[in-house]
Structures are given as structure tokens and as C-alpha cells.
Amino acid sequence: MNKVEKKVTTGRPAPEGDATFAPVRAAFTNDEHVTEKRMFSSENVLAVQGKIFAMLVKGKLVVKLPKERVDELVADQIGENFNPSRGRRMKEWVVVGAGRALWVVLAKEAYRFVKAGKA
């Protein structure tokens, strides 16, 4: 796995396919604790204290939240459980398609959860 961390900036061209994730990245440009990680050739991964809290996967937002919150979002049909490999549901990760919820709001919620160390 190729990982590169760097401070989140908006002063450079956005990575390809980044248009939907741009508002999420922009929400954290002034936070010195947030870095971008490069994973699997994607620059659309945000971390706090070295732990991922939000990423763009196949055009959808994936965020880390408490299991109860993930269950709520799934029950309300706002998101779905994140299954990075078939049959392996990750209880604290939710996938939200574009237009299904305010991505920035969910990313900030995920940031607070992960930064608090409960992740």
C-alpha cells in the first residue's frame, strides 16, 4: 500500500474525479491536524492524527462514525454499510452517495469522532 501524507490544500489542481469531494477537502484546509493520504493512487483520503475519517470511493463519500450513527443512517436510507471486500461489513463506516446527505456535515462529524479517539 502506497501512503503519502500531506497537509490539505486547495492551492493546487484537484485530483481527477475530485469535483464531488472538493467541498469536503475545502472544509479542512485550515485545520492543521488534517492531512491527505494517498492510498491506492487516490488522493481523496482525509486523516486526523494519522487515522482516516473520510474518503471518496467510487464516487461516494465513506466516513467513519459510531456504529449507532451508521445504523441510523442506513435505517434512514441515507447511506449503506461499507463493504470493502465482499461480505466484510465494517460496522463503523458508512457509504453515502452524492445528493443523499450533506457530505461536509458528515465529514465533520466523522472528524470529531476519530479525533476524539473513540475510533
Describe the protein:
It contains 3 helices and 7 strands; from the N terminus they run E-H-E-E-E-E-H-E-E-H. It is α+β, with helices and mostly antiparallel strands. It has a single domain, classed as Alpha-Beta Complex (Aspartate Aminotransferase, domain 1). The protein has a 7-stranded antiparallel beta sheet. A hairpin with a 2-residue loop joins strand 2 and strand 3. The N terminus is likely disordered.
Strand order, biggest sheet? 1-2-3-4-5-7-6
The CATH architecture name reads Alpha-Beta Complex
How many helix segments? 3
Mind summarizing the main beta sheet? 7 strands, antiparallel
| H/E element sequence | EHEEEEHEEH
Low-confidence stretches: 1-5, 10-14
Radius of gyration from CA coordinates: 13 Å
The CATH topology: Aspartate Aminotransferase, domain 1
